[in-house]
Specification:
alpha/beta, 9-stranded mixed beta sheet, 4-stranded mixed beta sheet, 26 helices, 47% helix, globular
């Protein structure tokens, strides 16, 4: 490089820096800038102190009483209190941030016009691009002051939160700075359009509103949809606030900044150059085309880079999911979304996710998976059909055919009716029963297909994140099915009037059919006419109301002798049907029924708690905290009233060591609260009274569910026996939660399924603030420091005015 060129470059850089310093000095000497800085501090302090002071006292008192909370609390406080795009301090600040920058930038260039200094600039050897870059650089440096204020609260959070997630804070700070810089570029451009600062601020607001909502424009057109979706500012910082940096997000902010700085330069040059209108407009069009081209290319999935800065890598697919998705190599994964014009029978609004206007939102849900498998192909089938026997639509549109109804509904929804095929045509493509005549997804790979009734989990927040019970485990099961993996087989024993998976009554087990989505295959099995298949993983024998025949009992005993896993559930007053089978195991359902009189519940409701063994069954999220406690604390799990759950109609269990089984209780009744009532229990009258004369037996604490393990033929045999069959019914599971039943099936299948994708308990889960420090922090940040800033601004502005 020639020496003269180096000297010229250094000279130009010095000019740019000098202009930036001058612009920064001008900003410091304006009341608006000081007002915005003080207001920004006040907003940060209010949103920060409000969250932390409220939680600090409660958490401090709770930890004093229950020290083990720090091991089991699932709260990610760095995200929840500071960076979360839903509820964190940063999210609240971003709601008002777009108001700050237009007020700051509204006079940056108009001030030069109003003072007449631009005439001197035109006559000087200074190039316009140096002026534009220098002034924008001054704005950017001033934005660092906003970031510095935010950084004060982030550093404070590092002292207030145990093991704060530093990567998450850095990512959020970077995202906010890029957003500030984009706002500044927009305001900078608006300031060049008019001599009036207020008008410039209004123009800035209009441009930001347009950029925030442009993703809703022309979304029905494929190519235009991608371009307008790229330009949108809406939710652009969500991934960054969640700790995920992507190249397309960073490029987006840089493109927006470069585009509006270029526009500013064109406006200023237009005041100096007498060019034809088409040339002036052409320059803007060229820049827009280049910006859209860069944005379109950079947003392609194959060209996107990801950097997860969170401590637990929570923005990245769980390693288990990555491993299972990696099984599908050698061919593309084809994803077909079937969308019924009339909606999903259960959730009609879910149909909209498949409409063309929402395709980008739907693809965003798949982005975590597309990150690790670039060749996922998407297809869309739009149809209209109704379930056989469902005549609601015909009642709504009397006298209309189904095709005519489809046309009217499409017109109301503002979609093209011609893209929807009828029931006869769609039936040739897919069995509508498999998608329940609604919205469904078919995954296909190398000739295999799986239907899944879930939408994928989304990293960060999306409009469809809460659409259903989204999770990775069903997709893991689907990936394994596509790869040809052998799935666990559950045999539901029938023939003795057991609880049924085919019935939907409140005492029945129909909900167990949902285990298919998690990786289990199941079938009913009448042992009176069939043998136990050799590939059976476990048998479920639930509350037989008739005595087991000799044939059935012999088959069950043979199955257990060969090391088969079993899940056996009994009920009070039916001990005689199961005890002959359980006797060989050294287990018995004790006579009578456990009762626990209470002024709030009927006497058959029993309070029982989960033992430490139940928390070790599987990696359910509610178990992870207690597993973490036992791992790091080395003590037995503390039991408290909060861990008790209510069970209805329970028979106590007794067991004795023998036959090589290791037996551990899973559920135990509350100590001294219940007893066994031997004679008939009446629950719709006065509360029963303990009566030894009637044979009632006092129990200190009774097991109502146990696990049994034994080595048979080189494999661990696993069994679960419970004295209550109702806790697995749809009525009880719906109220008590699916975690414990699901963990039982996981344990019985050797924890192969479900494929759990919960991340470890976060380390930043407690506040280390004392109540005294919380009060001092509130005083300093809400009153003292803003007052100091106000006095500093007044003194500085007053001295400037005197000069």
């Amino acid at each position: 490089m020639p020496t003269s060129y180096k000297i010229l470059t250094i000279y130009r850089m010095r000019l740019i820096i000098k202009i930036a310093k001058n612009e920064l000095r001008n900003l410091f000497y304006t009341p608006v800038a000081w007002f915005l800085l003080i207001l920004f501090w006040v907003l940060c302090s209010l949103f920060y102190v409000q969250r932390f002071s409220r939680l600090a006292n409660n958490m401090y008192n709770a930890i004093q009483e229950y020290p083990y909370i720090k091991y089991i609390s699932p709260a990610n406080l760095t995200a929840g209190l500071v960076t979360s795009p839903l509820s964190g301090m940063c999210a609240n600040i971003l709601q008002y941030l777009y108001l700050f920058i237009p007020l700051l930038t509204m006079g940056v260039i108009s001030r030069e016009f109003n003072s007449g200094s631009f005439k001197l600039l035109y006559a000087s050897p200074l190039r316009l691009r140096q002026l534009v870059i220098g002034k924008y650089l001054g704005l950017t440096v001033f934005n660092l002051l906003f970031l510095l204020i935010l950084g004060v609260f982030m550093v404070t959070a590092a002292f207030d939160i145990q093991s704060v997630d530093t990567g998450l804070l850095i990512s959020a700070a970077l995202g906010i700075f890029l957003l500030l810089s984009s706002y500044a570029a927009v305001g900078f451009f608006a300031s060049s359009l008019t001599r009036y600062p207020i008008a410039a601020a209004l123009i800035s607001f209009v441009i930001l509103i347009v950029l925030g909502n442009i993703d809703q424009v022309w979304q029905q057109y494929d190519f235009v949809r991608d371009l307008t979706y790229f330009l949108s500012l809406k939710n652009r910082t969500n991934r960054v606030l969640n700790g995920l940096l992507t190249t397309k997000d960073i490029i987006y902010f840089l493109v927006v900044i470069a585009m509006f700085i270029s526009f500013t330069l064109f406006v200023l040059k237009g005041r100096m150059q007498a060019l034809p209108g088409y040339q002036k407009i052409g320059r803007y069009i060229v820049v827009i085309i280049i910006a859209l081209g860069i944005g379109y290319i950079s947003s392609r999935q194959s060209l996107t880079g990801y950097f997860d800065l969170t401590a637990r890598q929570t923005n990245t697919l769980h390693p288990n999911t990555q491993q299972n998705l990696g099984l599908l190599q050698g061919a593309p994964l084809e994803v077909t979304l079937y969308t019924n014009l009339f909606g999903d029978p259960d959730e009609p609004r879910y149909a909209y996710i498949g409409f063309p206007a929402n395709i980008n939102s739907y693809l965003d849900l798949w982005e975590p998976y597309r990150r690790f498998k670039k060749d996922i192909q998407f297809k869309y089938v739009y149809y209209y059909a109704v379930k056989p026997g469902d005549d609601n639509l015909y009642k709504t549109f009397p006298g209309k055919s189904l095709k005519q109804i489809a046309g009217l509904v499409a017109r109301m929804l503002k979609v093209d009716s011609s893209m929807f095929i009828g029931p006869e045509e769609v039936s040739k493509i897919v069995d509508l029963q498999k998608i329940d005549y609604g919205v469904g997804t078919q995954l296909s790979w190398k000739g295999r297909s799986v239907f899944i009734d879930y939408f994928p989990s989304q990293t960060g927040e999306s409009v469809f994140t809460a659409a259903r019970n989204t999770s990775e485990p069903p997709f893991n099961a689907a990936f394994r099915r596509l790869s040809g993996a052998k799935m666990p087989q559950i045999g539901f024993v029938t023939g003795q009037l057991e609880r049924s998976v085919l019935k939907t009554g409140e005492r029945e087990y129909s909900w167990l059919n949902s285990l298919y989505a998690l990786g289990f295959d199941g079938d009913t099995l009448n042992l009176a006419t069939r043998e136990v298949p050799a590939d059976m993983t476990m048998l479920l024998l639930a509350d037989p109301r008739e005595a087991l025949s000799a044939v059935v009992k012999a088959k069950l005993e043979k199955y257990m002798d060969n090391g088969g896993n079993m899940f056996i559930l009994g009920e009070p007053s039916k001990q005689g049907t199961l005890n002959p089978l359980l006797q060989k195991l050294g287990v018995q359902l004790l006579p009578g029924q456990l009762v626990q009189p209470s002024q709030h519940e009927t006497a058959e409701k029993i309070a029982a708690y989960k033992t430490q063994y139940s928390y070790l069954l599987a990696k359910e999220y509610e178990n992870l905290g207690f597993q973490n406690f036992m791992k790091y604390n080395g003590k037995k799990l503390p039991q408290g009233d909060t861990s008790y759950k209510m069970f209805a109609g329970v028979a106590a269990l007794s067991y004795q060591a023998g036959n090589g089984y290791t037996i551990c209780p899973l559920l135990m009744t509350k100590k001294g609260a219940s007893w066994r009532k031997i004679d008939r229990l009446v629950i719709d009258s006065i509360a029963p009274v303990f009566s030894p004369a009637s044979g009632d037996m006092k129990e200190i604490s009774s097991p109502i569910a146990i696990q049994m393990t034994k080595q048979v033929h080189g494999k661990e045999q696993r069994m679960v026996i419970a004295g209550d069959a109702d806790f697995l019914s749809i009525l009880r599971v719906s109220s008590m939660g699916y975690d414990f039943p699901r963990s039982l099936f996981s344990w019985l299948s050797y924890n192969q399924y479900p494929v759990y994708t919960a991340f470890p308990i976060p380390k930043d889960n407690i506040l280390v603030m004392t109540p005294a420090w919380a009060k001092l922090e509130k005083l300093l940040y809400t009153w003292v420091i803003p007052s100091i800033l106000l006095l500093t601004g007044i003194v500085l502005l007053t001295r400037r005015k005197r000069k």
